[in-house]
Design a protein that fits this description.
- By secondary structure, this protein is α/β, with parallel strands linked by helices.
- It is built from 15 helices and 15 strands.
- Helices cover 40% and strands 16% of the residues.
């Protein structure tokens, strides 16, 4: 079984070919790229089956049929798969979403070397740390995101009891001290956040945690409670500070909401990580330079500048294919990572100009006295010094 997103598709195929030659075992592909382009994946000789969408139930049924453990059930009966019949690709009807996420077993972390996974410098306060997901789906529809194609816009969340049970297991079995929640958007349900924070405090769990939120879903008092319950940092997907650009990608946030969220988060004592995307529709180098002045004034603790990646089958990708916003210069899957310039907006002269503005953005924000001095003064031990050193070296390599 091989997980496949768009950027690792070619490498995943190379791996599947080695498996077929070396082991002769059937190969099953699953993941985001499979879900949006199942036929493309299945038409490779080294791929025998594809699992489309959520795989927890589907792959168990598929393996049951292959191992003849489910009498009366055939490949054509398994929802959410694709397979080959007489040399032709067959895609079965899709499987409905899992209603109760609590029914899914916790990840079998015992099967992987947990100590081999190293977090980025700005993704932890204490070690050891790990990642978790407590929800699936996002009820928003930014045009550059393909979450809707994978999970739909229906938001589902695990019960607080189920999440706390997994956290306790992580602390007991692995000594975990920090968790980074990797949900598409964390905490859309305020009642859930209240119950989660109250339980963490009542159980006196020794835990620090990070999460990803939208600026238009956080509230001042809720942020204070999150801090008490161990929240150390929130990653906000801002993308841009230009209202025209935000409207073009259907982000549905305003500069006022950004300012409020940053102020409330800082007042609560929670660090702010902010994500921006360069090369967006309607963007120009002049807009970025103007935006950077505001970013430096807002002064989040960390920023990340991704390159716009028009992923296949997103609304944005289809708009570009229709001639809107700019031109796709390079559609090589290996380049669709967020780190490379592959799309040229009408506001830029060349991809080289876009790459240059990315370097300018990083250096403009991080290499200023107003950022460096407070960070040096905040060092409280060797671990902090290691994190900042790793981060500085990473920035110098950009």
């Amino acid at each position: 079984g091989i997980y496949c997103n768009t950027s690792n598709y070619r490498k995943a195929l190379a791996l599947s070919q080695e498996i077929r030659v070396g082991l002769g075992a059937p190969v099953i592909f699953g993941g985001p790229h499979v879900t949006i382009r199942p036929l493309e994946v299945l038409n490779n000789d080294s791929v025998d089956y594809v699992v489309i969408g959520e795989g927890e139930i589907t792959v168990v049924e598929l393996l049951g049929v292959l191992n003849k453990k489910l009498p009366g059930l055939e490949l054509g009966d398994v929802k959410g798969i694709g397979f080959k019949k007489d040399g032709k690709a067959v895609i079965n009807p899709g499987r409905e979403l899992i209603k109760n996420l609590d029914s899914i077993a916790f990840p079998a972390r015992r099967l992987v070397p947990m100590d081999k996974y190293k977090p980025s410098p700005n993704q932890y306060k204490r070690l050891p740390m790990t990642t978790m997901m407590v929800s699936r789906g996002c009820s928003f529809n930014c045009t550059f995101c393909n979450s809707e194609a994978i999970w739909t816009r229906r938001y589902r969340i695990r019960s607080v009891q189920n999440v706390i049970q997994e956290i306790k297991q992580l602390i007991r079995d692995y000594g975990i001290k920090s968790i980074d929640f990797w949900d598409d958007v964390w905490g859309l349900n305020k009642e859930w956040i209240d119950e989660f924070c109250d339980t963490v405090l009542r159980e006196r769990l020794d835990l620090t945690w990070f999460c990803d939120c939208r600026v238009d879903t956080v509230e001042k008092e809720t942020l204070k409670k999150m801090k008490k319950a161990g929240c150390q940092c929130i990653f906000y997907g801002i993308e841009s500070l230009d209202q025209e650009t935000l409207a073009a990608i259907n982000k549905r946030i305003t500069l006022e909401k950004i300012n409020n969220a940053f102020r409330w988060t800082r007042e609560a004592g929670i660090e702010i990580r902010a994500n921006f995307i360069l090369g967006l529709p309607t963007e120009t180098p002049e807009k970025v330079k103007k935006m950077l002045k505001v970013i430096c004034k807002l002064n989040p603790d960390y920023v990340k500048f991704n390159m716009l990646t028009p992923y296949p089958e997103t609304v944005l990708y289809n708009q570009i294919k229709e001639g809107k916003w700019g031109v796709m210069v390079d559609e090589s899957y290996d380049k669709l990572t967020g780190y490379f310039a592959t799309f040229l907006p009408f506001g830029y002269k060349s991809l080289a100009e876009l790459e240059k503005i990315k370097k300018y953005a990083y250096r403009k924000f991080y290499f200023r006295l107003g950022y460096i001095l407070p960070k040096l003064l905040s060092v409280r031990g060797l671990e902090d010094l290691k994190r900042f050193t790793r981060g500085a070296l990473a920035l110098l390599s950009i």
